[in-house]
Amino acid sequence: MKPLAYRMRPKKLEDIVGQQHLVAPGKILARMVAAKLLSSMILYGPPGTGKTSIASAIAGSTKYAFRMLNAATDSKKELEMVAEEAKISGTVILLLDEIHRLTKPKQDFLLPHLEKGSIILIGATTENPYITINPAIRSRTQIFEVKPLTEEDIAQAIKRALTDKENGLGEQNVVLTDEARLHLTRVTHGDLRSALNGLELAVMSTAPDDLGVITIDLQTIEECVQRKALVQDKDGDAHYDVISAFQKSIRGSDTDAALHYMARLLEAGDLPSVIRRLLTIAYEDIGLANPNACSHAVQAITAAEKIGLPEARIPLAQAVIELCLSPKSNSAIMAIDAALADVRAGNYGDVPDHLRDAHYQGAKKLGRGIGYKYPHDYPHGWVKQQYLPDKLKNKHYYAPKDNSRYEKALQEQYERLNKFKS
């Protein structure tokens, strides 16, 4: 029997879970399908977020032949077979997984078929295509980011799988407890494939009771996804409470509390939440008071992602201890939020003429760029001139903290420059 995640793949765009920024009515992929003007594309995003589902749904919506290959493991011969099929049927949609591993001979073979449109390529990758995909392929495709699914998206897919009698588990009398459902939607971190695999394993490995009911409780789901729940709470707040306490403990310089809350997250297998939160903390709460600590946190996170649990706990603990004991400053987030508040309130003006783009014909007649002073032509690389719009020319967003020698030096330079400007 094919896995549940495979059986539940959507056959049309309307069945896709999440990714509404691409597939909702009026959005780009829906418009392409409706207009029957498909073009080759690259879908990139985390595993289990629907890249293959989007490709199969596009094929199902257009009735084109659909083939799946892997750029790393399938040979050029398989590509040649797809090309031959395209000659016969007219158009083939080819989902090419791990497209960032496409070799040059395979790429050279594909390019003329992409040019003619006989093969519509849908490349799937977890890597950033702007960095990892060859420019020759990239220039012939549109690039769309596939975002992690929300807990609501996962819950919707689980409900559909439990009720679908043709492809899902609807023929079986399954009761999924609220605690088990919540844990399954949360612990898989937006990976629908993992959620459906865990659900199927739980159902298939649980014996029905005397009435034929298969009851899936929290303990069963924990075992099937190999992730423990932080605590048994029916409200579902404990997960976020621990994450909140983790950040607030670092902000408050309590090393022992921060290590405790991180230990709870790691024991639950929630490495992604630890990583995301540490990155945020480094720049939100430590920031300019200690930029080296921010860099060290990024290095520790990179190491943790490479080695995985349980060893990931070592670099992460080092980062947490350093962030806890570091001086703190939130001046960067406060500065950008103050600037964003002005922009969102419409409190901005025209860019001064001397700062406007002057690289096009007729710019000087419009007064663009006239009077601009190039700072590098002046002593110390600085010259007095207005940069903010007239409406905001005396506005200050950055409010330095003096919690560290580093930001104290920034404060002195900031105040010195402001004095010269006045």
Name a few traits of the molecule.
Zinc Finger, Delta Prime, domain 3, alpha/beta, 4 domains, 422 residues, five-stranded parallel sheet, Helicase, Ruva Protein, domain 3, two-stranded parallel sheet, Rossmann fold
SSE-based structural type: alpha/beta
> CATH fold name of the largest domain, please?
Rossmann fold
Low-confidence stretches: none
Average residue pLDDT? 89
Backbone CA Rg: 27 Å
State the fourth-level CATH superfamily of the largest domain: P-loop containing nucleotide triphosphate hydrolases
Shape: globular
What sequence of helices (H) and strands (E) makes up the elements? HHHEHEHEHEHHEHEHHEHHHHHHHH
CATH architecture of the largest domain: 3-Layer(aba) Sandwich
Mind describing the biggest β-sheet? Answer: 5 strands, parallel
Strand arrangement within the widest β-sheet reads 2-3-4-1-5
CATH class of the largest domain: Alpha Beta
Distance between the termini: 76 Å
Task: Please describe the topology of this protein.
Blueprint lengths: L3 H4 L12 H4 L4 H8 L5 E4 L6 H12 L2 E6 L5 H14 L2 E6 L6 H13 L2 E7 L3 H4 L2 H4 L3 E4 L5 H13 L10 E3 L1 H10 L4 H13 L9 E3 L1 H8 L12 H14 L3 H13 L3 H16 L4 H17 L5 H13 L5 H14 L60 H17 L1
Parallel strand pairs: 1-4, 1-5, 2-3, 3-4, 6-7
Helix pairs in contact: 5-6, 9-10, 9-11, 10-12, 11-12, 13-14, 13-15, 14-17, 15-16, 15-17, 16-17
